[in-house]
Xanthine phosphoribosyltransferase (Cohnella thailandensis), 190 residues
Amino acid sequence: MEALKSKILTDGVVLGSQVLKVDSFLNHRIDPVLMSGIGDTFAELFADAGITKVLTIESSGIAPAVFAALRLEVDLIFARKRKSLTLRDDIYTEKAYSFTKQEENEITVSKSFLNAEDRVLIIDDFLANGQAALALARIVRQAGGEVAGIGIVIEKSFQNGRQVLLDAGFRVESLARVASLENNTIRFVE
Ligand code: G4P
Ligand code: NA
Ligand code: NA
């Protein structure tokens, strides 16, 4: 998506060779015009996929996901993150280990918001190692539903997340694919 790539080039800040800071339009301040375009693009990509729900994870996945859900005219559910949790039987729970943050999150979704008839589009802001998306997919499976695809705003293609998700059999659509952040320079996949 060209508008997104331009925004990354003008406003993205490279931190070392591994992390791209995009606080000015995605992770802290949100650019609603860009987000709206992102929603349009996801909706076009998955127009024929029979999506019944969009699923993301708090907090930064919510902005792009809400625009995708708006364009697809379906509900958005965001999984909640909790460090520890007493077991309850009215929620789906999965663990997601973050290599970036070196911590494990428990993510939860109320059982009343996903069901076996759902065809779910999973959306997230970043794809690094794919663990958040996999945990969301396991929650969809717990509900008996089907993952129709995974939409990512910014994929770090030098990490293994895309391959992990493809190996698991999922359709992955990333709107910007960052090939490298070496030498303080953002390079996209051709
Ligand atoms: P994974 O799901 O692909 O395995 O990713 P990982 O656990 O490694 O990512 C942990 C958190 O770090 C996620 O945010 C993810 O969006 C974010 N992240 C990973 N790489 C980058 C990067 O290069 N730049 C930025 N800006 N974020 C990155 P989170 O902890 O869920 O927080 P939130 O932003 O959703 O609140
Ligand atoms: Na994030
Ligand atoms: Na996220």
Q: What stands out?
A: The first strand starts at residue 13 and ends at 15. DSSP finds six helices and ten strands in the chain. The beta strands are 13-15, 19-21, 53-57, 75-82, 91-98, 103-110, 119-127, 146-156, 172-180, 187-188.
